[in-house]
Amino acid sequence: MNREPFETMPNVMDAKQLAKALQISKAGAYNLLNALDFPTLRIGGRKMVMKSELIAWLKRHTNSKE
Known about the structure:
With 66 residues, this protein is an alpha+beta fold. The protein is 41% helix and 15% strand. It is built from three helices and three strands. It has a three-stranded antiparallel sheet.
């Protein structure tokens, strides 16, 4: 499987799309969007995340042994 995991997701995601991308509940997505270290983008009253920022955040928060 060589495809980018979020290839088909939009470049800016709301809570529902974030939940789908990460296969978590919508409440879990809102928890992430409200976390202090999560790269949230505010558009009006909506909290969203840019796909590129999400991928970078996931890489920073992944425990891996190199």
